[in-house]
Amino acid sequence: MLKRIAPLLLAACLRSTAQQADVLYDEAKVPKFTLPDVFALRSGERMRDAKSWSSRRRPEILALYETEVFGKSPAKPAKLNFEVKAVEKGALGGKADRKIVTVYFGSTRGGPKMDLLIYLPAGAQKAVPVFLGLSFSGIHTVANDAGVPLAPRWVRGVQEPSPESSRGSAAQQWQVEKILAAGYGLATVDYNDIEPDFVGAMKHGIRPLFFKPGQTEPAADEWGAIAAWAWAASRAMDYLETDKEVDAQHVALFGHSRLGKTALWAGAQDTRFSIVIANESGEGGAAISRRNFGERTKDLNAHFPHWFDGNFKKYSAREDEMPFDSHMLLSLIAPRGLYVASAEDDRWSDPRGEFLGAANASPVWKLFSRKGIETMEMPPLHQPVGEHVRYHIRAGKHDVTAYDWEQYLKFAAAEWRR
Ligand code: GTR
């Protein structure tokens, strides 16, 4: 399918060739491991209450992920430049009010920019909670809406116009009508606007804007593409905070797959996101790396060297040497709402590893007197578990489905009513 553009073809290909290759898919062969203690400082001292964990352990974990995994990102620019356009009342057959907001990353309107597509329930009388998500393809793919201009796409490293047939091609993965019917809005950005997703694409994205004079590559502890995408999600949040139609206290950040890893990293750093949803985020996301099941750090570093920072390369096939694991990344969302989800056939992402990441992060919620997942036993298909940390596994392949969105909407309703 042409709409599954180059990087996604590579992803699909990895998934299927991995079936034959030397990939661990046998639960009996998962090595025994001990996870780093989410409560203990590197000095060994254990934090026993929310206040000391937040002020002492949390910054340590954040700094580890910043230097060793995703790389440091620049601060929020002093001046942000937004342009609100394409405002339409009664889009999507009268169900939505729609606008497109351009966020300019530089100080002028000439440089890189991203277009934020926002659907809000038509005629909403007060500010509405919003799901924010980066998407894999142009904003015109999110819904069948003739009013959204066709964004260009990248094919084999070259940008070209998108065909009309791609309009609405990702609609299944966004379920905008369900979101609107629940009384929420949806805001999306094409991640290619921030940095296209292929080796060597950095020059087309935002990272060079922040280089020091003479710098041509990020340093080993500076941001990779995932951190760049995450940073831009925070810039989208900067805009949402200025929009009176949006209830910026209630913004859920959603991401699928590599964009699930991105959502986790954005949500870890930016506590304005009140809920973080990682759909099938796999290795480098919610899955416990030490299980070595499915995708491994060496696969990430070999196939997608641009995603993570330079320091992360030293952990290729050395998961047991990492002073962190995914439960620590997930703990950075506490005490906010966290949803981790898996698909049964998506073994490459290690569903059990994703569950165990969420379950092993949950004791941190307990410190805040909030319930997370209170069992180490993986639930059966289609039976979500947990309260402020929730998890489900559904039947089917690596994807985002209506079932997934139904669960996220229920979770948001519960979180936001509390
Ligand atoms: C895979 C990659 C995963 C996941 C996925 C995706 O091939 O190995 O880590 O992020 O791509 O984003 O579709």
Record the SSE blueprint.
Blueprint: H1 6-20, H2 50-70, E1 81-90, H3 91-94, E2 96-104, E3 113-121, E4 128-135, E5 153-155, E6 158-160, H4 171-174, H5 176-181, E7 185-190, H6 191-194, H7 225-242, E8 246-256, H8 258-269, E9 275-279, H9 297-303, H10 326-331, E10 337-343, H11 351-367, E11 389-394, H12 402-417
Parallel strand pairs: 4-7, 4-8, 8-9, 9-10, 10-11
Antiparallel strand pairs: 1-2, 2-3, 3-7, 5-6
Contiguous helical run count: 12
Share in β-strands: 15-25%
Q: Order of strands in the sheet with the most strands?
A: 1-2-3-7-4-8-9-10-11
Looking at the overall shape, the CATH architecture is 3-Layer(aba) Sandwich
Spans of at least 5 consecutive residues with low confidence: 1-5
Largest sheet: 9 strands, mixed
Structural class: alpha/beta
CATH superfamily: Alpha/Beta hydrolase fold, catalytic domain
Bound molecules: beta-D-galactopyranuronic acid
Q: Give the SSE order as H and E letters.
A: HHEHEEEEEHHEHHEHEHHEHEH
**What's the gyration radius in Å?**
20 Å
What's a concise summary of this model?
The chain has 418 residues and is an alpha/beta fold. It has twelve helices and eleven strands. Beta-D-galactopyranuronic acid binds next to helix 1.
Summarize the structure in words.
The longest helix has 21 residues. The protein is an alpha/beta fold. It contains twelve helices and eleven strands. The N terminus is likely disordered. Helix 7 crosses helix 8. It has a single domain, classed as Rossmann fold. Helix 8 links the parallel strand 8 and strand 9. The strands form two sheets. The chain has a nine-stranded mixed beta sheet, with helices on both faces. It has a two-stranded antiparallel sheet with strand order 5-6. The protein binds beta-D-galactopyranuronic acid. Beta-D-galactopyranuronic acid binds next to helix 1.
